[in-house]
Every structure is written in C-alpha cells, then in structure tokens.
Amino acid sequence: MPTSPATLRTDLAPEEASQPNLGALLRHVHRDGPLSRAALAERMNLNRSTIMGLTTKLAAAGLVHERRPAGEGRSGRPSLVVTPAAQQVYVLAFDVAVDRLVAARVALGGTVQQRRVAPRSRSGPDLAAVVSVLARFGRELHEAAPPGAVCVGVGASYCGMIRPGDGMVRYGPYLGWVDQAFGTELGEQLGLGLPVAVGNEAHLGALAEHERGAGVGVQNLVYLHGDVGVGGGIIVGGEVLDGEAGYGCEVGHMLVNPHDGRPCSCGARGCLEAEVGERALLDEAGRPAELIGRDAVRAVVTDAERGDPAAQEAVRHVGDWLGIGVANLINLFNPGMVIFGGIMRDVYVGAEPQIRGRIERHVLPVSRERVRLATAGLGDDTTLLGAAELAFAELLANPLGAMAHAGR
C-alpha cells in the first residue's frame, strides 16, 4: 500500500539519487498540482540544476510538462512550472461497495476524467457478476482514453478483508465472499496485461483523505467509513497501519456494547458497526426492513433535521454509540483528526452533539485538546480515489521503469 515517501538522501551520487528523487518529485506534482522548479527545489532540499535534470527526465518520459508561469514579467529568469501530464497518463480505479460498483479513469494528478456506475444487488456471493461489470466498464474507459494516453496501473477498493499482494478477498461480510480471487479474476477479464492491486476500502479511504482530502498535512488520523457496516483506516506517522497480516484496523468489530448489543454480521454481538451501521439507524427510526442503502440512511438524517421525532431519536441513539467508539479510538491512537466518510459522514452531521459529548466525557484531556473532527473532504469519491492512489503506487516509486513497462 502506498505511503508517504521517506526523507530523501541528498549525499548520494547523481546516478544513485536519481530514481528515488524522480519518484518524490512526481509525487509532489501528482498530489499538489503545478509547482515551480523553485518550489520543488525548496521542498526536496535539492539545488535547481538537479531539479532541472529530474524534470527533464520526467518530461522526456511523458510524465510532466513544463511551462512558463502565467503573468510572469519579462525581467529575470522565471522558474518554470511543472505540471502532471494528466492527458497522457492515467490509471483505472474500481470501488466495490455493498450497493454499487464504480469504475473510473483517473488522471495523473488525481482528477477523475470519466466514470461508470452500476447498482449491486445484495443477492449473496456475486464474484462473476461483479468482475463482469467492472471489466466491461474498465475496457470502455480504456478505449475512451485520449489518443496516445498510457494506463500505468489498476487499483480496486473492496468492502472486506483483503490479503496483501494478490487481491484475494479473505472475508467480505454481508454478501458472503470468502477467499474470492477478485484481483486475479478482474485482471484476466480486463485483458490489459496489468495486475490489479486491491485494498480494503477504509484503508484506502484513509490514504486518500491523508493525501488529498480533509487530512492533508495530518500525520496521525483515524478514518471511519460507513457502507452497511463500519470500516476503519488509521494513519500513524504518515503511514497506513495495516497490522501483522494486513487485516488491521477493523474498528467496526470493536466491542462497545457487551451486555445487550445488537447481533453483528461477524457472529458476535455489540460490535460498533452493529450499533451504528445502516440497519441500526433504520431500525431505530422505525423504517421497514426492505428499506436499505445510503439514500435510506440520508433520508433518516434529513428527517431528523426537519424535526421528525422518531428520526431524531434514532440519530441521537446511534450517535451516542458512535461517540463511544470514537472516544475509545482517540484514547488509543491520539490522532490529530477523526474523519467520517461514507454513511458515517451523514450520521456525524446529524449526531455531532452526541459524539462530541462522549469525547468530552470519556477522552483524556491531553488527547482531546488537539483532535479535530471532520467529514471526508473527497465526499463519495474517497474510496475510489484511494484505489487510484494504490494504482499509481508503482509509477510513483519507479517512474521511468513503470512507464517502460506500460509501453511494453
């Protein structure tokens, strides 16, 4: 999984330093957009001649463009502005949620150029159907890319526990996916000769919000993602915390109500996601069992804002349990920010007083004095853009090698 780059060494010979510095420079313009050579030199602690050499190599590989800054006067020597080659380099990104499938072509620089969306039914194990739809979308997006554009990677976000390295879904709750070779199957049906990197949706959501969303500049954060249940992604020291085998941060299965808790999809009772997930909110609001999905959740929050008593009580009840979970996470990880994404974004908006009340009562003063609460800055695209960042990882680690591979 991609993480923030380590501090670069500047005492190496030019040929030794070139590769990591190329990747670091490309990461800067990919994440932050157009930057002058002077700004890049300052950020990377390199002299301008070294920056010129790096940008020349990246431009020759078709990864960046250089231009004179707009409005620059004629006096002096203006520092050229380096921009990502958004029309020439892209990845395919896929987001598999419980209720929907999303595919997108995402340009270098992080802009979604084109997308496809399809509903997903809750009809049990559906690997073949999911792969068929996403592969078709991916081929369409690839064929519609600008002439001469190069696809440098494929990434997918899945709502389940993913084995690192091969895209195997070890466990996908709600739809019964157990040991499904999702990444391999999707790669074969896409037929692009590129492997499909797969990550847990909440882990990728944390990465995306850290790189280009609400958590930019925050080195320690907790991201809570709501689909049907609750997933968690945690950034510690700028890196995703993934655990011994890659299955860490399953905060939705943190026990918060051990005595009379609601049943959870994992087989236990009183897990955080059982108390604050989709079904908990809809049941508390008295909504019929056949009413499901993010639109149904948002309708409850909207009704609560309009003064509906049942909806207000449901949002307060769920918000209180969510506040307990958040308080535990703040005490445990001392984050600078907690970000709410997916349906948790909607629940937070309606239940902010309950959540902040639990933090005030249960979080140690030294931990709560600096923590900020925020909704996902990337909106509904958080996990999709996390998948895109996963797909760009090889390019950002080895720009020239990845372009050579893509060309072959």
From TrEMBL:
<dbReference type="Pfam" id="PF12802">
    <property type="entry name" value="MarR_2"/>
</dbReference>
<comment type="similarity">
    <text>Belongs to the ROK (NagC/XylR) family.</text>
</comment>
<dbReference type="InterPro" id="IPR036390">
    <property type="entry name" value="WH_DNA-bd_sf"/>
</dbReference>
<dbReference type="InterPro" id="IPR036388">
    <property type="entry name" value="WH-like_DNA-bd_sf"/>
</dbReference>
<protein>
    <submittedName>
        <fullName>ROK family protein</fullName>
    </submittedName>
</protein>
<dbReference type="InterPro" id="IPR000600">
    <property type="entry name" value="ROK"/>
</dbReference>
<dbReference type="InterPro" id="IPR000835">
    <property type="entry name" value="HTH_MarR-typ"/>
</dbReference>
<dbReference type="Pfam" id="PF00480">
    <property type="entry name" value="ROK"/>
</dbReference>
<feature type="domain" description="HTH marR-type">
    <location>
        <begin position="25"/>
        <end position="75"/>
    </location>
</feature>
<dbReference type="InterPro" id="IPR043129">
    <property type="entry name" value="ATPase_NBD"/>
</dbReference>
